[in-house]
Amino acid sequence: MNVRRLIPTAALTGAVALAATALTACSGAAAEGGDKNGKLDVMASFYPLQYLAEQIGKDHVKVDTLTKPGVEPHDLEITPKQTARLGESDVVLYLKTLQPAVDKAVAQAGVKNTVDAATLTKLEKHATSGHDDHATEGEGHGEAGADPHVWLDPNKYAEIAKGVGAALRKADPAHAADYASNTDDLVARLGALDTEYKNGLGDTASKTFITTHAAFGYLAERYGLDQEGISGVDPESEPSPARMKDLQAIAKKDNVSTVFFETLASDKTAKTLAADTGLKTDVLDPLEGITTASQGADYFEVMRSNLKNLQKALGTK
Fold first, then answer.
1. Is the CB of residue 183 less than 8 Å from the CB of residue 165?
2. What is the pTM of this model?
């Protein structure tokens, strides 16, 4: 006699419900975007935006960057493969006008969720020097020549962080609570960093610093300092003899002790000016990228290193 094993009605109903739930979950994940591991696929144009995505998204995101370690962001060229990769991303973070090649690639890729960091805070125009005959910082960056280096001001970087957090919540609402909490934590840390800068630079012997790359306009404005750039927005450009003469006079008048250079560009002009004026040289990193030799240093570590170098150069009363 053939005996058929009957599946209890309750068990059968449960199995069907479980299968339906799994199917719905899969469909939902596909609808909300994400890579094959279920993570939100985020592409950042350069390090400061990559760092925000990593800190806010944490385990829920897979973050990649167009500007690899050791590459000077201003000079970035986008390959067809990178443009295609942009088109596959769930969210793209970039800062319009900083990298013209990225702007063009983003427009071609047609990604639905694109976030322009320049719209998340107010950009301003900063001069590289106190003389009208020198180019303004950010020349060539947008119609008004706005300075794009907003991430060097912890307060403005916090505003951008809030915008990035909102974009991730919109793209992946299932993890909105985590994105909100991580954003709040990061903004609090940036507030603490701002306090460190205010306390550390509030009473210095000199207020003027000279740097090869005039990227520190927002930082200088926030903390009551005067930036004197040897070059403009392009750290590789050669200053005119007249500009070098001006800087020698400024160094003597404002009791400048140090000429700063950066990690991703040549230190040739800084060393030339330092040799001509008897000044020291040191690093002031604009954090446009992390070098291959940075050994795990992140935004906060580099910013605190910058603070120490500024304190040492400007002195205390």
1. yes
2. 0.82
